[in-house]
C-alpha cells in the first residue's frame, strides 16, 4: 500500500467577512428548495481515505453504532486517494457523502455542475500544509521557486497555497511552473526529480519530508496569516432533500467523533497511523502537535460569510473559474 494514498484535509478562514447576497431578495437553495425532517432510506454510503476524522470514525466503530441505534446502516466505500474522486462518487450517485476534504475542489465541482451541497465544515489546527523541496535542490525560500516546477492539485489546497505564497512575496505566478498532479502521482514525481517542489497537506507532506529528505519552503501555519480553505462534508442535493434526518444524524455523529478525537490524541493518531501505514516517527509528530478538530454547522452565518470571502479570493485569482454563492449550496436539517 502506498503511503501517499493519504487524502486531503485542510481548511481555511478568510481575511474578512463578505455579504451573503441578501440584497438580491432571493432565498438561497437551502432555504427555498429543501424540506426539513425527511427520510426515505435506512442506508448511508460514506467514503473514506487514509486521513483524519473519517478514518478514525470508521476504525473505532462508535460512529457506525451510533447511527445503527437510529436505524441507519453505514456502508463504507473506499479507500479514496484524495477528495476529488469522492466528489465524483457523490455526483454519480454511487456514494452519499464525501470524506471530509477541502472546500476548494468542492466549490470547483459545484461550479462545473455537480449537484452538491455542504452538510458540515471542519477546521483543524495546527495548519500543516506546506510547499516542500528536497534538501539538495537549492530551493529554500519562495523566491527560489522562480523558474522551477511545483506539483499541486488543481483547484485544491495545493494550488491555493502556492498562489498565496507567490502573492505574499510579490512573485507573478507565470514565473513558476504549476504541474497539476494528484497526490499519488505527485509523490513519485518529487522523489524522481520530475518536479522541483510539492505543495501538499498532511500526512502526505510529512511522509515526503521524512522519506525524501525534504524541507519546508512555505508552511501554512507559520507563513500565512489567514485561512482560505476548510475541510467539508458534502452530499447531493437530492439526498439532502429526501433524507434530512440522516444528514443531521451523520453531522451529529461526526461532532461526537471530533470531541473524542480531541480528548484522545494519542489513541486517535495511532488509529490513523496503523491504517495508513506511515512510520511511528510521523505519528509522534502529530501527537506532539495535538491536532484539534472544530466542526462547524451550515447554520453558522458568520462562518458562511467568512467562507464566501474565501471563495471570492479563490475566484479572483482564477483558482476557481468563476464566483460561487456559498449560501446557495448548504444542506438544511
Automatic annotation (TrEMBL):
Gene3D superfamilies, A to Z: Periplasmic binding protein-like II
Pfam families: NMT1 (PF09084)
Leader peptide range in chain numbering: 1-33
Keywords from the UniProt entry: Signal, Transport
Protein's cellular compartments: Periplasm
Solute-binding protein family 3/N-terminal domain ranges (all copies): 43-264
Highest taxon above the source species: Bacteria
Alphabetical list of SMART domains matching this protein: PBPb (SM00062)
Keyword Secreted carried by entry: no
Xref: InterPro entries: ABC_SsuA_sub-bd (IPR010067), Solute-binding_3/MltF_N (IPR001638), SsuA/THI5 (IPR015168), TAT_signal (IPR006311)
Family: Belongs to the bacterial solute-binding protein SsuA/TauA family.
NCBIfam families from the UniProt entry: SsuA_fam (TIGR01728)
Protein name: Sulfonate transport system substrate-binding protein
